[in-house]
Amino acid sequence: MRIYSPDPKILQALKGTNIELILDVPNDGLQSLASDLTVAAAWVQTNIQAYPDVKFKYISVGNEVDPNTDTSQYTGYVLPAMQNVHSAIVSASLQDQIRVSTATYTGLLVNTSPPSQSAFNENVRSYIVPIIEFLVQHNFPLLVNVYPYFAYAGDTKIPLEYALFTSPNVVVTDPDGNLQYHNLFDAMLDSHYVALEKAGGPNVGIVVSESGWPSEGGTGASVDNAETYYKNLIGHVKGVNGTPRKPNKAIEAFLFAMFDENSKTGALTDAVSNNS
Question: How far apart are CA 55 and CA 48, in angstroms?
Fold first, then answer.
């Protein structure tokens, strides 16, 4: 389960459930945690140490911060906030339980097809490479939001079956290793692995911190397609096949979302990505 900001009622309800949790530091909370270690320590005390029976697994310090979007104001805070939160986790003797990372997305990549050509956009490298160095130093994974739906909806050349895990045939063959892709999810995931390797993180793992399909509001958005996507995604990650580039490596993924966010601003497809 993932919650995007600390909510005492939700954390109280999770006590003793053994449900693994990603807890976010929201973007608008990054500056205070980046600027003062004592603030980070207080955040950990209030939102983590106060709930010893909750199974915290990851702290996502920021979500989809991107130097090229309206979240660019937060880029200078992500890494120092990660460092301070990790230091607070260590001080609380929770470093063996909780890993600190940040959630990114495909928007930071270029040349993602075939996956072997993928790389972080040159104009985000000064932001993302120091974060990758931090992850390498501590053996932490990168959290990545992976949405085949938005890739499909934005490119008419992508077959719907490829995005829904239902293609009976290979759709993309990567000449680097002759790797064959039957689904877009694996291709997107491997694109991130390649980008990480090129940026100095060949052994950095990936946790899929969001993935979903909208039930209405856009091209291919329907209840039936959402049901197909979620069922097939669950079946795929429960298997032991991994991706073509990372065979036999288990995929850890979080579904987005438990409920429709019908009060959320922006495109309807952002608000109704639920698992019905």
Answer: 9
